[in-house]
Amino acid sequence: MVLIFGGAYQGKLEYAMKEFNIGEEQVFTCTSDNLLAEVGPEFAIVDKIENWAWELTKAGKRPVEEIDLEALKDKIIIARDNSQGIVPLDEDERQFREDMGRLLMAVSKNSDKVIRVFCGLGEVIK
Amino acid sequence: MIYFISGGCKNGKSYYAQQLAKKHNAGKMYYVATMIPHDEEDLARIRRHISERDGWGFETIEEPLKLSNITENLDGSYLVDSLTALVQNNMFREDGSFVEDAGHLVFRELEAFIKKLRDNGGNAVFVSDYIYSDAIFYDEMVEQYKKELAYVDRKLAELADQVYEVCYSNIKEWK
Questions:
Q1: ipTM score of the complex?
Q2: B167 close contact with A: CB closer than 8 A
């Protein structure tokens, strides 16, 4: 597993596709309407995992407990970093930030490689 | 040489940018002031910035919207602080209108400005703000602003010779 994270609009997906030579058809984009369990072997990248986590947060579930890391072990996971601002006032949003932190720690731990993207540039930090 | 600096706010970006501009100056140094003051707080910030630049040898050029207005002394050394303000001023206009693709507009101007500087032996330091890692859900207009500023950041990072992230006055070289 590879984790690529960075702030919003930093060009994470573009970086991943270029760096790992992956086409659009191999990108699974998480939305409010799909599940990580739907990610088949045809996909190499799981983009916007925060969207999947957000749905769980709103449903009162913990993403770190729901994720099947074994099923995703050969995937590149892309996540938006939301760890660096002030504490959100809204309870769900506050919980979401915590959930993302715990989720990405678990994903990091299980990743062979972790890359941070800043303004389109990548840095391997693990 | 074209330098791009970003990082969190109140981290020493402007100070480092001034040092870079001074160290690599090609002759005359110009500070491109981009802020349009709206209240006393803004005016106080501008006064503080002016006093911080005192004695550095910068000549101030007020240009809150269009870098293409700079047509002279393109062999000089420019400090543009900040892209954040340029995108903001171009997006949320003084007349109340909203320009959705302000970042694209700003980048086209930047690209042309950089080309002119490179052709004339000038150089520039551009400063932006890294505002992309918080957990707040914003309305569409603010989201669009973040998106457009990030577009300018990414494109400029690609174009720049050097890219630095400033973190509490520590410098990380990305490029």
A1: 0.80
A2: no
